[in-house]
Amino acid sequence: MVELLLECASGGTWVHLIYPSGVVSPPPVSLQEEVIFYYLKQVLEGLHHLHSHGWWHRDIKPSNIGITTDGIVKILDYGGAMRRGLNPGQGMTVNYLPPEVCADKQNCSEKMDIWALACSVIFLTTGVEVYTYLPERIRAVTNGPLPTDQKNLVKHIAAYGIHVVEFMPKDDRYTWLKNLVKLMLNPVPHDRWSALACLDYINRKEKLTPTTVTVSVPSVLPDIQQLLQDQTEPDAQCKDTTSGYQTQPPRREGDLREIETRERNREEQNREEEELGSQKEFYPGHIPIDM
């Protein structure tokens, strides 16, 4: 068994950026383009490092992009990651699948991570996963009924990827971002931009429109030290400082089940003793049970 230990991202995930409670409940928080680029650039740097070493993440999505309270991005969940040249197994979330993988899961490459990241960016600007309303939106794009065969459906998904940018906010807040997302959603994997090309685009954007981004991310987790303390406290008797008596710690679910089992066994034993006409024996701590 292989266990992966990941660094704690106490600032939550990309989901928490627009839904601070972690629950997808519109309306989402509106983010400035500079803030999105700030986080997007870090993810692209991580993906470029991963891809340059021959690995694909294969499950990029908002809930798998963590953030520390210092605003540092951490790519999470490498359970579906795959090395170039290996046979693809399970991996990726349906709402973030590129068209080539929908057609054949063997069509895996680093470009699938780019498509999924573009869908994640759209989530940051709309608060909705790209494929949530896919049937209705495909009809809106194609002005026709949904195809029933998989081959034509994949073609529609590819076309939908190009048009989905139109569902981003219509104002001028995301001009640079929209252009980049279009290039990341190219239906042809070979022509879809790489992580390095996307980074070059962002660097050019920063030179032409320099801005200062101040990021403050509140922790979405309880105090870690307190959690550790709670877990390591001895399961012994606790002193009641108000009365001076020794009191038992709160019962856990397992303790309650054990007590119930003992009581049932005692009831059965008492019932057998009564049937035999024997005298009940009382001893300190014994709890008589009414039959």
Automatic annotation (TrEMBL):
Tagged with keyword Metal-binding: no
Alphabetical UniProt keywords: ATP-binding, Kinase, Nucleotide-binding, Transferase
GO cellular component: a single term: cytoplasm
Biased composition (Basic and acidic residues): 250-269
A Pfam family the protein falls into: Pkinase
Domain Protein kinase, first and last residues per copy: 1-208
Recorded coiled-coil stretches: none
Keyword presence, Nucleotide-binding: yes
Residue spans of biased composition, Polar residues class: 239-249
Region Disordered: start-end pairs: 231-291
GO function terms (MF aspect): ATP binding; protein serine/threonine kinase activity
PANTHER family cross-referenced by the UniProt entry: MITOGEN-ACTIVATED PROTEIN KINASE KINASE KINASE A, STERILE20-LIKE KINASE, ISOFORM B-RELATED
Family: Belongs to the protein kinase superfamily. STE Ser/Thr protein kinase family. STE20 subfamily.
Protein name: Cyclin-dependent kinase 8 isoform X2
Species assigned in the record: Lingula anatina (Brachiopod)
